[in-house]
Design goal:
Layout lengths: L1 E3 L8 H10 L3 E5 L2 E5 L11 H4 L5 E4 L7 E2 L1 H4 L9 E3 L5 E6 L12 E6 L15 E12 L5 E9 L6 E8 L2 E6 L9 E7 L5 E9 L2 E6 L2 E6 H4 L8 E9 L9 E14 L9 E4 L9 E6 L4 E8 L6 E8 L3 E6 L9 E6 L1
Antiparallel strand pairs: 1-3, 2-3, 4-5, 4-8, 6-7, 7-18, 8-17, 9-14, 9-18, 10-11, 10-17, 11-12, 12-13, 14-15, 15-16, 19-20, 20-23, 21-22, 21-24
């Protein structure tokens, strides 16, 4: 699991580490982000869900009459609801959602579900499709409604029409993903991941990395490039969801969807900065009789390859070097007899 350090807030890492070790968690510090990995063997049924899982960046929606939301400060204090959100006998984090449950303003179906809070204090601060954004989970579906469907994980968009980008759904013994090719349309593309019996372990990963959506369910992998499908996705922001989003709203109160989680973790890595594109320009006073002299203007310390072509199809290297000061002067003495010659610089 992951807890991101809030900028400007002092953190006593010794105290944090001691607290998580008491909970059976192993902390690791990776480039300014604290990552907490939970083993299923460490789950303690005597603890509330927040004692076994890092829920500092999640809020909870309940399927009670008001579709109550419970925010991170209350959850991490040991929040439990004996009906809808609790630790099972094996320490799993259990989500129960009856078909008769209350729904949120824009929803058709009830849910007992976590919503990622990238900023625990605001719904408005979410992440983009750039960089690497990963949700990892292990869960078991033990009950389904008469529709046979329950959503166990999502990437949901926040901007625009705020449609779900992907919904990972258990559907009558099959696991499938419903992916929206466009943020402007409600149509879904369906990706299949094989079968899973009730009460069997479903291990899944939902990753969005620079527009490439990758889903892995029980070692079956499917990919979908959303930026290529519709560039409008580049303007969206997103958040993860996980739990029991029951896809049914009719029946007795005893009918519904129950999902138990044994692992839930989130990781976010920013997009890697690319070297600035190089600019080539002819140095004033260049004479074709002595070969062309030009200057490459790039980023300090970046590595570039200078290439030449007579037809814009076949390119060959002139020079591969670091631009230590960001500027390289070069003279191509082989260009004296060329009728036409093209040059380019490639960032390496």
């Amino acid at each position: 699991m992951l807890a991101a350090c809030m900028p400007g807030l002092p953190i006593d890492f010794n105290a944090v580490g001691a607290w998580f070790r008491r909970c059976g968690l192993l902390p690791m510090l990776l480039s300014g982000i604290i990552v907490f990995e939970t083993s299923a063997l460490a789950l303690d049924p005597a603890l509330p869900p927040s004692g076994n899982f890092d829920l500092t960046h999640w809020k909870l929606t309940l399927p009670d009459a008001k579709a109550t939301e419970v925010f991170p400060p209350e959850i991490i204090q040991g929040y439990t609801d004996t009906n809808y959100f609790y630790s099972g006998s094996d320490g799993a984090m259990v989500f129960w959602c009856p078909v008769t449950g209350g729904v949120t303003d824009s929803a058709k179906y009830p849910r007992s579900e976590l919503r990622e809070m990238f900023d625990p204090l605001s719904d408005n601060n979410n992440w983009t499709g750039y960089g690497t954004n990963l949700l990892k989970a292990q869960c078991k579906v033990s009950q389904i409604p008469s529709s046979k469907k329950v959503i166990i994980g999502q990437i949901h968009s926040f901007t625009g029409k705020a449609l779900p980008l992907v919904k990972l759904q258990y559907n009558g013994g099959k696991v499938e993903a419903l992916v929206k090719p466009s943020p402007n349309q409600s149509d879904d593309t369906r990706l299949s991941f094989g079968t899973a019996e009730l009460d069997s372990l479903i291990a899944y990963r939902i990753q969005l990395a620079d527009g490439l959506l990758t889903l892995v369910v029980n070692n079956v992998t499917q990919t979908f490039n959303i930026f290529e499908s519709d560039p409008d996705w580049t303007n969206q922001t997103f958040y993860f969801k996980a739990g029991s989003y029951c896809q049914d709203n009719a029946g007795e109160a005893s009918e519904g969807a129950k999902v138990a989680f044994y692992q839930l973790s989130v990781e976010h890595s920013p997009a890697v900065a690319q070297p600035a594109p190089a600019v080539l320009q002819i140095i004033p006073g260049t004479s074709s009789s002595n070969g062309f002299r030009f200057q490459l203007q790039g980023k300090d310390g970046a590595r570039y390859s200078l290439q030449v072509s007579d037809d814009l199809r076949q390119w060959s290297d002139l020079l591969t070097t670091n631009a230590m000061s960001g500027i390289i002067d070069w003279q191509d003495e082989t260009a004296t007899n060329a009728a036409t010659r093209y040059y380019r610089a490639i960032s390496l």
